Amino acid sequence: MFKPKEFSQSEYEFVSIDELVPDDHLLRLIDKYIDFSFLLEKVRPFYSVDNGRPTDSLILFKMMFIGYIYGIRSERQLEREIRTNVAYRWFLGLKFKDSVPHHSTISWNRQHRFKDTNIFQEILMKLCF
């Protein structure tokens, strides 16, 4: 008997992001072997302690790292990819309902806060070597 399946994409399922990312996924391996905590001290001098909006520089740099290793050159595209890719969310520590930092936040940091610095090269060199 021919009977097409009825789809219901609004059903709720209890699942964790952690169980959806395979053990051998590249980002899981990177997370296992690279301690990104050094980033916080590296960028601290570029942030004010008194004013401005709070930001998680670790997430921003990890977003850029995802873009670098997966060849996502557009910050707008990077934001879109992170919204829908479970492994990217897992790597960044974002929950399913957490908002992804806006692409303009990455751009602003790159073009203003870290302008005329070699912070990105320093961080990538530390990560890669």
Quick structural overview:
The chain contains eight helices and no strands. The protein is mainly α and 129 residues long. The termini are far apart.
- Helical fraction: 40-55%
* Helix and strand sequence: HHHHHHHH
Instruction: Note poorly predicted spans.
Output: none
Q: What's the helix count?
A: 8
Q: Assess the beta-strand content as a share of residues.
A: under 5%
Oligomer: single chain
What would the principal axes of the Cα set say about the shape? Answer: elongated
Roughly how many Å apart are the termini?
60 Å
Please compute the radius of gyration using only Cα atoms. 18 Å
Biggest beta sheet attributes: none
Structural class: mainly alpha
How many DSSP E strands? 0
| Mean pLDDT across every amino acid position | 83
Give an account of the 3D structure:
- There is one protein chain.
- With about 130 residues, the protein is mainly α.
- The protein has a domain at about 55-129.
- It is built from 8 helices and no strands.
- The protein has helices at about 15-20, 25-35, 40-45, 55-70, 75-85, 85-90, 105-115, 120-129.
- The longest helix is centred in the middle third of the chain and has 14 residues, at about 55-70.
- The model has no long low-confidence stretch (mean pLDDT about 85).
